[in-house]
Amino acid sequence: MRRFLKENSLSLIFGLLFLAALVGQAFAGWHQLNDQQFAEGLDQISLGRYLTSASFAVDVTENWQSEYLQFLLFIVLTVWLVQRGSPESKPVEHAGKESDERQKVGAYVRPDSPAMARAGGLRAALYSRSLGIVMGAIFVLSWFVQSVSGWAAYNETRLEQLRDPITWGAYLIHSDFWSRTLQNWQSEFLAVGSMAVFAIYLRQRGSPESKPVGSSHEATGVEG
Hints:
Layout: H1 2-7, H2 9-39, H3 47-51, H4 54-80, H5 100-103, H6 115-119, H7 121-127, H8 130-160, H9 168-172, H10 175-201
Helix pairs in contact: 4-8, 4-10
């Protein structure tokens, strides 16, 4: 058990942090909504009702879609785009899909290669893009859920204001949907871009996301 915890400590800690943050968000959002309900002279709602509400769903999924979009773009764009001196980039000369030899596919597969990589053909081609495919699918699904739950939450507000609800199609081009979306996208793009640049000149000893402390600023794709 101790070995398992040590070898999987990164994913376990982030899983626990995720659950703690999600629970905290649920309670904070519940109290915030009830404060708003009280101020408007409306009935308080239970935690269970809040957790199944459109308001909670849209607040959660608008963050999920932006995070998975960030990683999708980073995974795909770093195949072709480079940043000299950054450990977040591969060396400039390796831009592109790289050779079969470097990717250990085709004639260069090894006995310990994943079965899909050894299979060749369509299965190997799909597997070679599987990370981007899965990240993209989660992004699209969470963005869709955000649009539906955001639409429902927005229409609830309109009905409280004695205004007619709008269709889902109308909501997709509405400022509420794009304000929620773009406020998350801009922060994700800023964080990824600044990390790629900061890591050229700054160091974090022992971190695989940083170059070794003594590495040259020009060293690219080198991790500690």
